[in-house]
Specification:
The chain has about 140 residues and is an alpha+beta fold. Helices cover about 20% and strands about 25% of the residues.
Length: about 140
């Protein structure tokens, strides 16, 4: 539900800033000084499991086996997926970018609708982090 944002992707080494309401997380929240939701949105980037392409391949596999998830766009250094909730079918937009300068995968996850996400985006990314780090 809701309209997909037209301004996703990596621009100047940054993903889109966090939402202005508490319904998103971003590993790059600190790159947006004075942002009203930087504290709420702050989340650690994903650590590499092998190199950048190998890590993104693992993330892609996790997305593929996650109910309600759909891979929307893929580049060698970037993945964009949507996640829909089971009951209400709310859609969240999630981006993963291999940041070669930092040696991590930067992440942004945001709800399309609503003012609050009740930690749904944070929980999703932390669950993905756990799955990514499993041997």
């Amino acid at each position: 539900r809701g309209t997909a944002p037209a301004d996703l992707g990596v621009k100047g080494g940054k993903l889109k800033p966090p939402s202005k309401t508490p319904n998103s997380v971003s590993s790059q929240a600190d790159l947006w000084p004075g942002h009203p939701q930087a504290g709420y949105a702050r989340i650690a980037p994903l650590a590499m499991v092998g190199d950048g392409p190998a890590t993104l391949a693992r993330i892609k596999a996790i997305i593929a086996r996650t109910p309600g998830a759909q891979l929307v766009a893929e580049r060698p250094d970037y993945l964009y997926a949507t996640f829909s909730t089971r009951l209400m079918k709310y859609t969240d937009d999630v981006e993963f970018w291999f940041d070669p300068a930092a040696g991590v995968v930067q992440v942004r996850s945001a709800s399309r609708l609503g003012q609050r996400d009740f930690d749904a985006n944070r929980s999703r990314i932390e669950s993905l982090r756990t799955q990514l780090n499993r041997p």
